Please model this.
Amino acid sequence: MKLIIALLGVIALLLAAFAVYARLKPIDRTRFHATPGPNEVGVHDLKGGVKQVVPLADLPEDAVPQLLELVRQSDGTTEVPADEGYSFVTRSRLFGFPDVTRIWVAENNLHIHAHLVIGSSDVGVNGRRVGQWIELLFAAP
Model:
């Protein structure tokens, strides 16, 4: 019984250390200013994230300010200063894994790039998040 309790304690300690690491690991600042591709219109699934490019002509009026407000209101999301466009960090609830989202306008298209910082797979979280924002944008009155 003592062995099981000790093992559970070690597991809990490792999980807590991992959560601290995820929350304190510095994010490469160049990610807040990057404008990564692809640049073709559409939804592009990437390893660890998603890039969505939407023509401004296909979006509702005032779409960009509305989108930015939706992102700012998202749970666990904070805005980070960017040279061009807008940058956000969204952290998962349990461990605080950071995802970086970049939003900018170029060549009459809205670009949204959301990508993980730690690991190699986001299990579709960024794609679902960006998809929800776009859905809410089109549903707004």
